[in-house]
């Protein structure tokens, strides 16, 4: 360890959603004079419009702070702010790889919650130093003693004396946090003269500068004039600029082992650099790359189509978003009803909502989002062939299917004792199977094995509703299991609408079909003639409603020809119905 590294601390703040991460980050930047009074703003690190609108952190951010302690020594505090919502666990795990310790923040009015436990486990698995902190101690609803007891229940190695008690909003006790970072979090190690070895833990795209990689240097030194090698992509690039966020971009002459900063690569290909990439020097490469990150598996799929905007504009916007969000996956697809668009893979329904809002707010696009669905594994009768189905329109004909399997998750819910019955009733109504019931201080942790298709839509909101906001949810991917899943097609005026194709469990078909055709009857734009809306499962119509005509009597010459009607009844005609976003929103609101 060099003399310079002794004064560096790399740390992250982890917590459940709305426990005060961004507020504590603001106080730390204030108390280290990182930002001037003029530039100070609430949620300074939450620079996305959706983050401020929802009050949550979606993207990880890094900032360098300079802390002068009571001895007069100046320390470099590299802070990484992480998300707290269950959908953004991947952002937390990526951020932790660039740190040496974490501040585990717990709200004194809410106590230890599901995401607190999930984030604590991530930090523990990464062998990081953990500093437990109780926040909002000046709130009238705070129960500090109970919260301390719950934190002690998380880890036997915690002692009551090392748990810090603060109010991030007022700044009370934050000075003790700054001291604890200096005293408890280890300084980085790494040989500054060794071959360069840097880890890309995030990236973003600038239309003028190209890909900007956020990196942690573990070995060596990176100068502004160095030629870099991206080992996984086998790509070389001339370095354009290096620097740090303080909190705004601050160019430097070089970055050294232990530093966290950014590199302007000048690479214009948005997909060239992946998170988990190892950067080294062309002149003196490192012998071994980092193992990298596992690819994130999307839980929910939905179609994204331009509505009133150009397909090319949507394509460019999605490419740029995918660079900033490693978990968002997409591929082009074409729908007869909606035209050219994309099939997107998301971590959950909240992730889908964030992507949709970012496309609208950051790129000014008017887009249409179809009903989300999960992935299915289908075994065909012919030669026992297995296919993965991400789009309901690809679901095979029922006569060809030998077995259908769907993905399951372990859903861990933390809740007060008196709400157990309501939560169990909700989970079992969504085909959940109880796996474990454990106590966590004064709370219960209930673990259910549940299908992704049942929790992807509105389960989180339902859980909040039945528990009056007290219960919390975290999920871990389990495995595929056999289920009696069927495909439901919707035909409007005897023509199948591919954007309204669903895969659902057989016992839910009847109610969902009737609810769907009733909604469509009221929301699909009317025409001069009456149009039937049918829900079809395995060749059988299971529900039907009629969309009334614009007038009681059709105008002369508007009657559908006999040939056209025969084509539609045979399912060979293309649908010419224009579906508004309200149709998909209404079906989504029905739940499953």
UniProtKB/TrEMBL annotation:
Subcellular location per the Swiss-Prot or TrEMBL entry: Cell membrane
BP GO terms, sorted: positive regulation of translation
GO cellular component annotations of the record: plasma membrane
Key word Cell membrane present: yes
Positions contributing to GTP binding: 18-23, 135-138
A GO molecular-function annotation: GTPase activity
Name recorded for this polypeptide: Elongation factor 4
Source species of the chain: Weissella soli
């Amino acid at each position: 360890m060099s003399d310079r590294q002794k004064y560096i601390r790399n740390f992250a703040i982890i917590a459940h959603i709305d426990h005060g991460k961004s507020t504590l980050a603001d106080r730390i930047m204030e108390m280290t004079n990182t930002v001037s009074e003029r530039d100070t703003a609430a949620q300074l690190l939450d620079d996305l419009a959706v983050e401020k609108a929802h009050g949550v952190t979606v993207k990880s951010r890094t900032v360098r702070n300079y802390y002068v302690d009571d001895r007069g020594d100046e320390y470099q505090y590299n802070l990484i702010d992480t998300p707290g919502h269950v959908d953004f666990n991947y952002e937390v795990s990526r951020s932790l790889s660039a740190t040496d310790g974490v501040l585990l923040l717990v709200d004194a009015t809410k106590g230890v919650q599901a995401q607190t436990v999930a984030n604590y486990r991530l930090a523990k698995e990464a062998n990081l130093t953990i500093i437990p902190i109780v926040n909002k101690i000046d709130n009238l609803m705070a129960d500090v003693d109970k919260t301390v007891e719950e934190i002690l229940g998380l880890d036997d190695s915690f002692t009551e004396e090392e748990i810090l008690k603060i109010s991030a909003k007022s700044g009370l006790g934050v000075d003790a946090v700054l001291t604890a970072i200096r005293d408890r979090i280890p300084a980085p190690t790494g040989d500054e003269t060794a071959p360069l070895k840097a880890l890309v833990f995030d990236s973003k795209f600038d239309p003028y500068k190209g890909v900007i990689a956020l990196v942690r240097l573990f070995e060596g030194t990176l100068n502004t004039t160095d030629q870099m090698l991206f080992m996984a992509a086998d790509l070389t690039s001339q370095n354009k600029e290096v620097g740090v966020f303080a909190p705004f971009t601050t160019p430097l002459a070089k970055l050294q082992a232990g530093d966290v900063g950014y590199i302007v690569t000048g690479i214009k290909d948005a997909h060239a650099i992946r998170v988990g990439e190892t950067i080294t020097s062309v002149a003196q490469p490192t012998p071994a790359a980092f193992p990298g990150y596992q690819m994130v598996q999307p839980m929910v799929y939905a179609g994204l189509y331009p509505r009133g905007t150009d397909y090319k504009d949507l394509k460019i916007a999605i490419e740029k978003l995918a660079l900033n969000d490693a978990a968002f996956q997409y591929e082009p697809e074409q729908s007869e009803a909606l035209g050219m668009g994309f099939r997107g893979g998301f971590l959950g329904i909240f992730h889908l909502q964030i992507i949709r809002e970012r496309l609208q707010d950051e790129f000014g696009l008017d887009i249409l989002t179809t009903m989300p669905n999960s992935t299915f594994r289908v075994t065909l009768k012919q030669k026992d062939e297995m296919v993965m189905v991400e789009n309901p329109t690809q679901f095979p004909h029922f006569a060809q299917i030998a077995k259908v399997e769907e993905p399951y998750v372990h859903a861990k819910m933390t809740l007060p004792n008196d709400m157990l019955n309501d939560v169990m009733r909700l989970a079992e109504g969504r085909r959940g199977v109880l796996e474990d019931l454990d106590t966590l201080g004064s709370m219960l942790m209930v673990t259910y094995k549940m299908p992704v298709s049942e929790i992807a839509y509105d389960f989180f909101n339902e859980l909040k509703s039945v528990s009056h906001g007290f219960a919390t949810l975290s999920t871990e991917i389990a495995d595929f299991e056999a289920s009696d899943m069927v495909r439901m097609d919707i035909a409007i005026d005897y023509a199948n609408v591919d954007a309204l194709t669903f895969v659902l469990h057989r016992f839910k078909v009847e109610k969902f079909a009737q609810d769907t055709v009733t909604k469509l009857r009221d929301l699909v734009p009317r025409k001069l003639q009456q149009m039937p809306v049918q829900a079809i499962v395995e060749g059988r119509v299971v529900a039907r409603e009629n969309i009334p005509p614009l007038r009681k009597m059709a105008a002369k010459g508007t009657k559908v020809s006999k040939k056209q009607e025969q084509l539609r009844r045979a399912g060979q005609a293309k649908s010419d119905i224009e579906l508004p976003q309200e149709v998909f929103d209404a079906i989504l609101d029905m739940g499953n």
